[in-house]
# Entry
Amino acid sequence: MHDDRRLGNKNNGGMTVSNPENTDVNRDELPFVAPCRNLSPLAPFRWLGRGMKDLMQAPQQSLTYGVVVAALIGIVCLLAWFRGSQWFMFSMIGGFVFLAPLTCIGLYAISAQLERGQQPLLARSLRAAFKRHFGNEMVFALALLIIFLVWARAAVMVTSVLYPSIGEPTIGDWVVYLGFGSLVGAVFAAVTFSASAFSLPMIMHRDVDSVTAIVTSINAVLRNKWTMAVWLTIIVVSLLIGIATAFVGLIVIIPVIGYAAWHGYLETIDASDFPRHTIGITAVRRDDAAEEDQSPATSSTQ
# Structure
């Protein structure tokens, strides 16, 4: 309720207008990290509720997005299964955990349009997501790709050294292999999740660089460990359910998770010190009703 009220931008018939207020911003005086709020461990369920509300307000756009993403995931996994191996398919599913944040960028734009009383258009969302902020998003994508490649290399090394392929493996051999492999994967997943939980929504919302967004995200995750553990559990369980339903469940799950992530960012991060984008969807301030709805239940903290 504190940042968007000060801005004079207006929503002109659902079309985004430019924001001239950023012209005098001295970027050398901007903070290195945006402050975050202390969250209740139950906060992610509130985000899910808002995500479901966005899905109901924009069902056609949401389900279209969900069908495309679910189809891509299904095609990649099927190719890995039939052209590679089961282990390769599981690796690709694991890789999706690293690259999943990039698939939700367009969903953030849909939520942003709904908050501003605009008609949610998929074309406008994709343009805002992949054209307006392309540079910062590619820097972030490169960072995720590097983490994924290092993780993939680590997984190959673990398999080549610990996989019980000689003789008759015992239960102990499998426990060592699966336990160590899971530990390595969990470390990389935790790093990726911490860096991506709020960074892409922040890049979408405010005119910030990728480094500031990533550091802000890591800081917020570390200060809300239990809440983010609940959120990560919800994401993983939801994705497993989606995959277990032959990827059909992902058609609904992907949009809801994407919308919930956007609302989680708005509730967690106080980005009011950073300039608004000069053009695009988020150059317009949110509606007062949306401001009230996103008001956090807990106080703000550095």
